[in-house]
């Protein structure tokens, strides 16, 4: 269903190692659950619910299973591996709608780079959604627990 949508696509380099719990789908969902619990302890409940539980799940379904996979189907051949970068830029552009003035460049980088990295993991780990959701939640938690404020100070916002 959502776990494998890579039928008939050209292969990207695969990471065949299976290190830690994040390599298994069950382990990734458990990791996401743990990140969510940490979010509830560190953040106001509504922020944790929205940013650690709902946003990573819904955004990764739309971004990975929707846009990323559609790009891989549309960009056949050697360009199919560029789907991760293109999807990450689209994801970052969508997040720029919510960036405060003065911090747009940092918001773009802080969104595009992790989204690109998560996309590479998606491709190299066999197009599994669960690890993407867990990584997305972890990046959101880091951002909300102070990384975002650091970027804003650097931008002078």
Structure description:
This protein starts with 24 loop residues before the first helix and ends with a helix. The chain contains five helices and no strands.
Say how many strands there are: 0
Shape: globular
Order of helices and strands: HHHHH
Q: How far is the N terminus from the C terminus? A: 43 Å
Given the helix and strand composition, which structural class is it? mainly alpha
Helix content: over 70%
Q: Which residue ranges are poorly predicted, with pLDDT under 50 across at least 5 consecutive positions? A: 1-6, 14-22
Number of helices: 5
Residue-averaged pLDDT, rounded?
79
Radius of gyration: 16 Å
Q: Please outline the major beta sheet.
A: none
As a percent range, the share of strand residues is: under 5%
In short, what is this structure?
This protein is mostly helical and 157 residues long. The protein is built from 5 helices and no strands.
